[in-house]
Amino acid sequence: MWAWQHRTQMLLRKLISDVEEENSRLTNAKLSLEEACEQVNFNIIDKSTDVKQLREQIHKLHEQLDSDMQEIAREEQEWAAEMESVENHRKLLEKRVNDGYDEAVQQLKAAQQEEAASLQTT
Description:
This protein has 122 residues and is mostly helical. It has one helix and no strands. It has one helix spanning 2-121. The radius of gyration is 51 Å and the shape is rod-shaped.
């Protein structure tokens, strides 16, 4: 009977040892999984921060684009107004040149008539 008890104790000790080893292995696996979970959570927080910063940058870029587009539109209006002013000035100058030319032609004709009349009287 003693041999049977001894053998049972040996088996129980072996079983306890196996259970302790399995418990240790599972505890280590649990700790590893907890560490991995913490790392994943940290990565999620880190990436969430990155996404937030990128969204802010996109928002700022959209605002800058809108501002630039408004500035371009304003400059285009100014250029169009300046071009219209230059064109009006050109037309005015052209009219003055033509008027001056017409007046000079009339004065030339008058002078030629005066000369012709002066020649006839002479």
